[in-house]
Amino acid sequence: MNAVQKPPRRYWHEPRALALWLLCLLLVLWRVYHASVVDAAPELLEEGIYEVRRVIDGDTLLLSSGARLRLQGIDTPETVREDYPIEAWGPEARKFTSDFVDRAGRRVRLTFGLERKDRHERFLAFVWHGDAMLNEELVRAGLAHAWLGYRYSGTMKRRLERAQDEARRAGRGIWSNSATLKSNSP
Question: Would you give the distance in Å from CA 138 to the centre of its chain?
């Protein structure tokens, strides 16, 4: 009498193999979820206190939430732009911003104008430590130009314009004679 032969069991039918596959699947799902929660930048920032993870350059910060933040209403000389040389006064602007953030204990207050994001999807904000506004202090130190053609309050525009006039009259930073010499040197 021929015994009826059972078909061989597939490896995925084995309880241990099935448990291993489920464990791998759960690990992959956890990793994807964890990466999206930790690394995803928020879609919206409310006014309030935020921790700064890193100063990217004089006018750009990376917050601990993953949000990239551009200082509203100003432009500092470049230091990290790809395929672009480091500009005169750029390293000084970055150091000034880094020192400001360090004095604030890496926790700064953000306020916003009418535009919340720029074309690169960076948040646009005014950055504060107490009564000191980083945007204004950079301009006053001669380490940034005031950009007055964008949509933010007239009060803030007047503050930045006064700070720029003060820096220009005093010949600070980008308004100094050495700025011309630095930018023309090889």
Answer: 17
Task: Please report the pLDDT score of residue 33 as a whole number.
Answer: 61
φ, ψ at 109 (rounded to 5°): -100, 135
Class of domain 48-176 as given by CATH: mainly beta
Look up residue 98 and give its amino acid.
S
What is the DSSP code (8-state) at residue 115?
A: -
Tokens of 12: 């995925």
User: Closest Cα to residue 58, out of 78, 85, 83?
Assistant: 78
pTM beyond cutoff 0.90: no
Q: In sequence order, what DSSP letters do the residues of 9-70 get, joined into one string?
A: PPGGGSHHHHHHHHHHHHHHHHHHHHHHHHHPPPS---SEEEEEEEEEETTEEEETTS-EEE
Mean pLDDT of 161-170: 98
pLDDT digits (tens, 9 = 90+) for 33-80: 655 444 566 788 999 999 999 999 999 999 999 999 999 999 999 998
Pairwise CA distance, residues 73 & 77, whole Å: 14
The H or E element containing residue 78 is none
d(CA 177, CA 171): 7
Known catalytic residues are: 70, 78, 122
Could you state, in order of their start, the residue ranges of all structural domains in the chain?
14-41, 48-176
